[in-house]
Write a structure and sequence with these properties.
This protein is of the alpha/beta class and about 350 residues long. It folds into 3 domains: about 190 residues, P-loop containing nucleotide triphosphate hydrolases (Rossmann fold), CATH 3.40.50.300; about 60 residues, Obg-related GTPase Ych/YyaF, coiled-coil domain (DNA polymerase, domain 1), CATH 1.10.150.300; about 60 residues, Roll (Ubiquitin-like (UB roll)), CATH 3.10.20. The chain has 14 helices and 12 strands. Strands 2-4-1-5-6-7 form a 6-stranded mixed β-sheet, with helices on both faces. Helix 4 runs antiparallel to helix 5 and helix 8 runs antiparallel to helix 9. It is flat, with a radius of gyration of 23 Å. The structure holds guanosine-5'-diphosphate and magnesium ion.
Length: about 350
């Protein structure tokens, strides 16, 4: 349900981060444009609460929430002839983008295309994406004027596209401006890149003491509300190959904190207004993803369509309370589980048992 495209200049560590997030082993190389076809992977959402719930319920299996991740070939800088038009088309299909910026220095990894100043790269990429949208919107604007002349109901859409062209023409991302529903509807089919939520990942050196300052400098130039995370993709990739105990040791050794990857995924979740609810049974304990503001009956449909059709009620308790009580049955016995109807809005972290009949 949530697809995230990785973007960035050549040799900044996109594929390395992709591998770290997905546990896959896509090809990385110290030369630009080593990724020529987009790779698709599934990133498991790190979730310590899910693990603790599973430890209490002893299910046959534990299933985390996931994000689909697309590793796109490198983007070129504005003015360069290597703009990957067909890959930008793939990026338009994504719900969010993760932009990787290079801050690490390495003699054996050329930085000719990117440099190692993440602020400079962020500005270049913002411009690149805005120009890509401008291209699409400017073409649409011409058409929209004609359509509006023939059909007055299309006037509002034409005005919306024209307003977007003005913003993009200044090199600004569309998400830096406020748009109403009519305007957003007019943009929908154009799938603007700069309206998508973006998470910025600054790929720092293993032992960079200034990682947080660098992240703050990037945050100052990207649209307000975008999240910036500093991490070492290299270390995260190595760590992803270790078992949990070794991983914790490695993370501690580098003082980078174990949670950098989790922060990237979480930030993406939040940017997309996604929340997690849990189902817990003997077969599986599972994290599930819905949009914030989803009613219980609709959320039940994510588990099984029969549950939505035959929805009777939901039994609900926050996962932290279920864990504190020592498990679902114990939480129930302690009166922690509430009964909710079909219109109850599922909260982030709810454990939900759906009663239904078909
Ligand atoms: N020293 C160092 N090298 C890195 C780091 N991240 C990636 N690399 C190396 O940089 C090269 C390019 O990385 P890759 O992930 O293929 O970059 P991409 O072109 O953005 O996909 C590879 O040789 C990586 O091993 C890092 O944090 N530190
Ligand atoms: Mg790559």
């Amino acid at each position: 349900m949530a697809r995230v495209g990785l973007v960035g200049l050549p040799n900044v560590g996109k594929t390395t981060l992709f591998n770290a997030l997905t546990g896959l082993r896509a090809h990385t190389a110290p030369h630009p444009f080593s990724t020529v076809e987009p790779a698709v992977g599934v990133a498991r959402v790190p979730d310590p609460l899910l693990e603790r719930l599973a430890a209490l319920e002893h299910p046959e299996k534990m299933v985390p929430a996931t994000l689909d991740l697309l590793d796109l070939p490198a983007m070129a800088r504005p003015g360069s002839s290597r703009l990957g038009g067909r890959f930008l088309a793939r990026l338009r299909e994504m719900e969010a983008v993760a932009v990787v910026l290079r801050a690490f220095e390495a003699d054996d990894v050329p930085a000719d295309e990117s440099g190692t100043d993440p602020v400079d790269q962020a500005e270049a990429l913002l411009l690149e994406l805005a120009l890509a949208d401008l291209d699409v919107f400017a073409r649409k604007a011409q058409k929209a004027v004609k359509e509006a002349a023939a059909d007055a109901t299309k006037k509002a859409a034409a005005a919306a596209v024209a307003a977007a062209v003005e913003v993009l023409d200044e090199g600004r991302a569309l998400r830096t401006a406020k748009w109403n529903e009519v305007e957003e509807a007019a943009f929908h089919d154009l799938a603007p890149l700069t309206l998508k939520p973006a998470v910025w990942v600054v790929n720092v050196a293993e032992d960079d003491p200034q990682a947080e300052d660098v992240a703050a400098a990037v945050a100052a130039v990207v649209p307000a509300g975008d999240t910036v995370v500093a991490l070492s993709a290299h270390i995260e990739e190595e760590a992803s190959r270790l078992d949990p105990a070794e991983r914790a040791e490695l993370a501690e050794g580098f003082g980078l904190g174990e949670g950098a990857l989790a922060r990237v995924v979480r930030a993406t979740y939040e940017a997309l207004h996604l929340i997690t609810f849990y189902t817990a049974g003997a077969k599986e304990v599972r994290a599930r993803t819905v949009r914030r503001g989803t009613p219980a009956r609709e959320a039940a449909g994510k588990v099984h369509t029969d549950m939505e059709r035959g929805f009777i009620r939901a039994e609900v308790a926050p996962i932290t309370e279920v864990i504190a009580a020592g498990g679902w049955e114990a939480a129930k016995a302690a009166g922690r589980v509430k009964v909710e109807g079909r219109d109850y809005l599922v909260a982030d972290g709810d454990v939900m048992l759906v009663r239904f009949s078909v």
